Amino acid sequence: MAETRFDVVGMGNAMVDVIAHTDEAFLGRHGLTKGAMTLIDGARGEALYAAMPPALEVSGGSAGNTIAGVASLGGRGAYIGKVSGDQLGQVFRHDIRAAGVAYDVPPAPEGLPTGRCLIFVTSDAQRTMQTSLGAGLDLRPDDVEPDLIAASRITFMEGYLWDPPGAKQAFLKAARVAHAAGRKVSISLSDPFCVERHREEFLDLVENHVDILLANEHEIMSLYQVDDFDEALQRVRGKCDAAALTRSDKGSVIVSDGEVHVIDAEPVAHVIDSTGAGDMYAAGFLLGYAQGRDLRMCGRMGAIAAAEIISHYGARPETSLAELVRAKLP
Description:
The protein is of the alpha/beta class. It has a single domain (6-14, 61-107, 137-328), classed as UDP-N-acetylmuramoyl-L-alanine:D-glutamate ligase (3-Layer(aba) Sandwich). 39% of the residues lie in helices and 22% in strands. It contains 12 helices and 14 strands. It has a 9-stranded mixed sheet with strand order 6-5-1-9-10-11-12-13-14. Helix 6 links the parallel strand 9 and strand 10 (184-188). Helix 8 (217-224) packs across helix 9, helix 10 packs antiparallel against helix 11 (295-309) and helix 11 (295-309) packs across helix 12 (321-328). The longest helix has 17 residues, at 192-208. The radius of gyration is 18 Å and the shape is globular.
């Protein structure tokens, strides 16, 4: 086995998040489906951006957030995702490196803008996302460095990455390299609408390419087309080494062949913004797994990380997750 340099390497759509507080009326006026992530083109993105209230702009992307969380937890993380050489691309590159993440993917060709995700947060902390992938569409298998994958305990992909065809092939290449090197492969299902677009391919991934599955209850029920969470849990059991299924304020359930663990949600005084909760849970769970911790402890790490992120705006930690874990876990 190659020398281990990283705990987790993430693959995803490199994005800059634009986060604004809005109301239900705004969503209605602009025809936005509450709670969903919708892919949009550049023109639609510009129109919505112009209509947004004052916003917070921060580097994001689901897998990028997870790997930033891994770094905040004290883990060693690397990232594979494509940005342009434009201003937002420079911001993304600076931010992820400043978070302690290794990132060396060359910029996309000139003319492709860096991707951005417009996030509309309503008073119930739900987020509605409108996403323009931009340069993320240019991710290709050539951007996957085999030595990097072989040197990482876990290769993690966000389900959103399954939309661009080149990125899909990049992940399959990474999965093959990881398994050939004796490493683990993980995927997050990302969004119920994403599952609907790619259900058959996701089912194949879970059964044949993925060792660790991360999903929320709506995504896992959509994957198996059932209306009952417990039924979905039984359907996924045995399909991969471990499935970590989050249930918002109900906590999470972790299932493997011989184990089922129910993990309580970490208490939060006030939920400000649920953006990034699943990404941070993934960070805690995957780092715990990479470190060889038992599944229950992995779930606890995920819960602690998720609680930090929903206590403020933005999808990147504002407090050291490593310090929080040390304070709360033996």
